[in-house]
Amino acid sequence: MKRLSLLLPILLLSLLPASAAEDKAAGTVDVHLSEYAIKMPDTLPAGPTTFVVHNDGNKTHSFRIEGPGLSEAILAKPVPPQETENLQVTLQPGEYKIYCPVGSHEVKGMKMTLKVTAKQGG
To answer: Which of 5, 13, 34, 41 is 20 to 30 A (C-alpha) from 51?
Structure first.
């Protein structure tokens, strides 16, 4: 009986829908900033999203996203070298402009277009 009581929580967790864990994982996106590049997926699903912004460079950078439903979403503060900040937004289907708003970084190539697709099966 003791063995069953130890296994019961594991069995109950296995019954939870896998989609809940998948949705949470899908809502987190790693972004890597460096001199003068942004590395992250160029297509994401719509929905609540947390951008985990890593500054892998030697200069201070930041992260701004503009698009459907977001007139302007920007990190609360610039990211010093070798540090990380998070930005939470809710993405809607469409195209978004992503760039570093620090100085002339955008002009030097720290920009990209993100395509957001409608959620599948939701």
So the answer is: 13
Of 31, 110, 109, 114, nearest in space to 66 by CA: 114
In whole angstroms, give the CA distance from residue 57 to residue 5.
51
Residue 54 lies in a domain: yes
Distance CA 102, CA 60 (A): 8
Per-residue pLDDT, 9: 52
Q: Which two tokens stand for residue 16?
A: 């939870």
Query: Residue 19 carries which side chain, given as an amino acid letter?
Result: S
Say whether pLDDT at 99 is over 50.
yes
Total domain count, the chain: 1
Establish if 31 belongs to a structural domain.
Answer: yes
> What are the structure tokens assigned to 12, written together?
């109950």
